[in-house]
Amino acid sequence: MQKYQIRSMTEMDPAEEFKDFAYIVSHDLAGPVRSLVEFSRLLVEQAPVPETDDARTNLSMVLESGEKLQEILHGLLQFSRLNTVPRLDQKVDVEEIVARVHMNRQTDLDMIRGTLNAGNLPEVTGDPNRLYQLFYMLIDNAIKFRRRNQPLIIDIACEETEQAYWISITDNGIGIDPMFHDDVFRPLRKLHNDDVYDGAGMGLTLARKIVLMHGGQIGIGSSDDGTAISFSLPKA
To answer: Name one GO molecular function term (predicted).
Structure first.
């Protein structure tokens, strides 16, 4: 009997194990990676001009790789914090949240001739900081994965059901192949090379986690006309 008791205490759910691993990696590696990036940047900015183009390219690649690793660690740290920081539970005005995100991204939208349209949005029960993070990441994804040959259009709408509100964020971007609709919610999963679309591959992972923490569901639809992310949030 004691053997099984010890085993049950030492085994860990894979999901919980990943959470702990994400925190350890992102927290303990943050300092060394930050130093790597800072010293690499100093080399690029202050060192004598290298004699060959190859040397200049290599220095820039070291800095770029360090910055990329820093971005990945930041995403993992955000994920781990979702599990360690207590969630607030209060009435939240989604319309106000979206307006704040819109204001903070207006300059970026202007630069790409983008438009964000939001209909009447409800009050829900949840954590205002995490819901801001949710909408920010989904709107950021729409901006990031836009078509370069046409103005971006983002539409945010809401439908009411008996127990929840279903909110959809649609865009006219590049879309996502249906065969990858499950994969894109996995940590660090990327469908494009960094030289095409940058990012750490954590945005939809974090979005899914936030929705689930609020007792909601999330899904994705895509076509040649763009992508639609739909999720539910509890009524206030």
So the answer is: protein kinase activator activity
